Amino acid sequence: MIDPGGEESRPRDDAATLRHDLVNKLYFVLAKFPGVATKNDHYLALSYAVRDRLLHRWVASARAILEEKRRTVIYLSAEYLIGPQLGANLLTLGLYKAARTAVDAVGLSLDELIEHEEEPGLGNGGLGRLAACYMDSLATLDLPAVGHGLRYEFGIFDQDIRDGWQVERTDRWLRKGNPWEVRRYEIELPVGFGGHIEHIKDEHGQLRVRWTPERIVKGVPYDVPVAGYGTDTTNFLRLWSAVADEEFNLDAFQVGEYWRAVDAKIRSENLTKVLYPNDSSPAGKQLRLEQQYFFVSCALQDCIRLLTSRAAIREFADTFAIQLNDTHPALAVAELMRLFVDVHGLGWDEAWDQVRRSMAYTNHTLLPEALETWPLPLMARLLPRHVEIIYEINRRFLDEVRTRFPDDEARLRRMSLIGEDGDKTVRMAHLATVASHHINGVAALHSRLLRETVMRDFAELWPERFMNVTNGVTPRRFVALANPRLSELITEAIGEGWIRELDRLRELEKFAGDVAFQEKWRAVKRANKAELATWLRQQHGLVFDPNALFDAQCKRIHEYKRQHLNLLHAIALWDRIRRGEQTADVPRTIVFSGKAAPAYRTAKLIIRLAHGVAEAIAEDVRARDQLRVVFIPDFNVKTAQRIYPAADLSEQISTAGMEASGTGNMKFTLNGALTIGTLDGANVEIREAVGAEHFFLFGMTAEEVTERKRAGYRPYTVLDQDPELKRAIDLISSGAFSPGDRGLFAPLVDNLVHHDPFLVLADFRAYADCQRQVDTAWRSQAAWTRSSILNTARAGKFSSDRSIAEYAKTIWRVTPTKPR
Ligand code: NBG
Fold it and tell me: Least packed by Cβ within 10 Å: which of 207, 413, 532, 676?
């Protein structure tokens, strides 16, 4: 018998076999032959050939987990921004060279096939991309893991720019087929909504609860393999899609109400139609709550299904380490209690013990408006049994608080799982916290602020549960794949071990002052910039000067990230040129890229302003050779991979205390950009790692921000003291960037001058002065290059392998399992 995971069935990885397989897939999977096959057909055929190799490893990994009964990580995340798969999988499987030869041999270009892939935009930004980096590292570290999430039919919208405005287009990523997923037809899990509950006595006289949902939707899984780099371990993402429960609507069919039945079907399938395009702010809509419940219910039922096929339900916590990626999956707490108590007959205490030993929660934001809460009546209508369970958890929890802190009513109100200021709400962060054995923030500063501010009461009650795990990014995608020129140079200097052990980049330090190495380093940057320039011209008709200092701010558009601070600086630079103040020796191109939430008006206005400024400068013949502003549309993983390798300066300028960690900051640093930034999020640790003299620091600290606000911040007083800033603001109001419409930016300007919640004006002077230091540093290219090399060399800590190793050791207590 053929063993699918065995050595004899392992597909060979040489170019000739790969070519044979490619053609084979073209014929027998796609029913095409050369001559009629399109680029998409070839892309699919090659992807299927690569997938065979992934699946072969996967079988072996799955078997190893089954045989060794190791604890498995269950990562629950509403978002996974995995990026395009073909290139990444070729790199991981070590197939890149062979694939190039194979594709050349059929007269096509591998780069074109890779470029052809439309990425699955199943996330908004940092949080979703982090989940994808973590899946990569879990596999690379041989840790058994399944990432559960949602298979949105439409991911994050595509961003078009029309007349300087963001226009959203539906992301139809599935339209040309998705070769990376395997649908599991044999698994269909029911998920209920609404209805009523009854308290009944069962045949043994035990009190039981019976929930009769009003509506049932079925969850079907699509698995996406995730291979480790330099190892055979292959885990998977299990993305759930909703389908109608036809039996449920049989009565409608039977009475001839065909339309009603079909209507219900459409309604069910709408559940996983679209990703809510909000970043760092809650979506607050019923459908979103349904999505959250739907996927955690599927994930947990799936875990229990697997567990009980070979062990007892009481082994749950020893078998699974569940990680809640933010509060989006926090309903897992109540759902797991329901499954244990109502379905599997465990007693409350025993069930709670299992929950508490399996769950951990990562917090990703301190922004008060982003801490998820759900209106209690909505949740009660949709999930009546869960609300009852949450009340019971809360009752027991508040008893515990009362014992520890007697006569402290205010504390009880603050800590309750139910918010009672105004309309009643369920506080998802509290629900996640009470059930978790560990709660972590995502950078040292953020974890400290978490303990001192939003989670203070909880940290007082359970100090031992709070920890930090600083975020990381995968060096496979963001250096090895995105920046092949740099990777080659690094490997030439220190060997290829850095791709799995990023700390080894430190060996580059000894080349930092080496003139010949510096020249090679600069040549890489120059080539990457030239490549970006060509792409921008061809794809978007944008002018990008590869000789200028490339200054990049690429991330979601948000007031706390302060793209408008950067724009005010750009305007001030322009103003200096117009006034004849700026010496022309440091030409700069300031690049913005990022999406705004469709309903976030201020963020969209900031995009419009970026285009207004870009245009005004481009039209000014005196200025445009010294200064350019460029907005690159549709920032996503694919675009990001083009930008990081080319950047000289990374803008990480959020108001201190607001950016939980940032991960783009790490990607820029690893690719040799120097950072201009505040002491916020992981910037603090990046600066520590690379050395203060290789980092441009400016601005208020988190403590100073709090103090300034407390003392009563009046932004207009700042304007009076800073004529340059005042002129920049006045230029906006004068219509310089909105010809014919002076009122266009009035909301933005008024907000800055009168409220300025993110202290843009207060930090402007420090920022503008710091940018002068950047110019000075740039003038000495040897010193700049040395700093650039040292930034890369010392950024090994920011590998997601390091983060995952920390989670594995201190939070999950899982150990590596290697397939044989
Ligand atoms: C984001 C933070 C980032 C952080 C990522 C990943 C949310 C809620 N939070 O600073 O804003 O890097 O999470 O941890 O999206």
Answer: 207
Range in 113-127, 281-295, 314-328, 489-503 the model is least confident about: 281-295
Residue 471 beta carbon below 6 angstroms from any ligand 1 atom:
yes
Rounded to the nearest angstrom, the distance between the alpha carbon of 575 and the centre of ligand 1 is 35
For the CA of 279, the nearest atom of ligand 1: 15
**Is 698:678 a contact under the CB 8 Å cutoff?**
yes
Phi, psi angle pair for 197, to nearest 5°: -125, 150
pLDDT of residue 219: 98
Helices vs. strands in the chain: H and E counts, helices first: 33, 23
Nearest to 642 by CA among 591, 603, 682, 608: 591
660 lines ligand 1 (CB under 6 A): yes
Say how many C-beta atoms besides its own lie within 10 A of residue 538's C-beta. 9
pLDDT of residue 250: 61
Tell me which residue has its CA closest to atom 13 in ligand 1.
127
Q: Give yes or no for residue 78 CB within 6 A of ligand 1.
A: no
Torsion of CA 394, 392, 338, 295, to 10 degrees: -30
Q: DSSP for 344-400?
A: T---HHHHHHHHHHHEEEE-----GGGS-EEEHHHHHHH-HHHHHHHHHHHHHHHHH
pLDDT tens for each residue of 48-82:
999 999 999 999 888 877 777 789 999 999 999 99
- From the CB of 384, is ligand 1 less than 6 Å away? no
pLDDT higher at 356 or 205: 356
Spatial distance between the Cα atoms of 397 and 433, rounded to a whole number of angstroms: 11
DSSP state string for 571-585: HHHHHHHHTT-S-TT
Nearest ligand 1 atom to the CA of 364 is 9
Spatial distance between the Cα atoms of 815 and 233, rounded to a whole number of angstroms = 13
pLDDT tens for 600-610 read: 999 999 999 99
659 CA closest ligand 1 atom index:
10
Cα of 659 vs centre of ligand 1, distance in Å, is 7
Ligand 1 contact, 681 CB (< 6 A): yes
Examine the pLDDT at 245 and tell me if it is beyond 70: yes
Strand partners, 241: 220
What is the number of the ligand 1 atom nearest to the C-alpha of 126?
5
| 54 vs 60: CA distance, rounded Å | 10
User: How high is the mean pLDDT of the chain?
Assistant: 95
Please identify every residue annotated as catalytic: 364, 555-556, 561, 663, 667
* Sign of torsion over alpha carbons 279, 280, 283, 288: positive
Q: Which two tokens stand for residue 429?
A: 């962060």
Alpha-carbon torsion, ordered 664, 665, 671, 675, to 10 deg: 150
Q: Is the CB of 130 under 6 A from ligand 1?
A: yes
**Quick one: average pLDDT of 726-742?**
96
Per-residue pLDDT, averaged over 306-313, amounts to 94
Q: Which atom of ligand 1 is nearest to the CA of 663?
A: 12
Q: Is the CB of 612 under 6 A from ligand 1?
A: no
Ligand 1 pocket, 372 CB below 6 A?
no
Is the minimum distance from the CB of 636 to ligand 1 under 6 angstroms?
A: no
Count the alpha carbons within 13 Å of 215 in the hemisphere toward its beta carbon: 20
If you take atom 6 of ligand 1, which residue's CA is the nearest one?
127
d(CA 131, CA 471): 10
Q: Which residue spans within 215-268 are E strands per DSSP?
A: 215-227, 234-244
Pocket test for ligand 1, best of 122, 127, 363, 366 (most atoms within 8 A of CB): 127
Is residue 494 within 8 Å of residue 512, measured between CB atoms?
no
Alpha-carbon distances of 320 from 75, 232, 336, 509, 808, rounded to whole Å: 10, 22, 12, 41, 12
68, 310 in Cβ contact below 8 A? Answer: no
pLDDT at residue 157, as a whole number: 98
Residues contacting residue 410 through CB under 8 Å, at least 6 positions apart: none
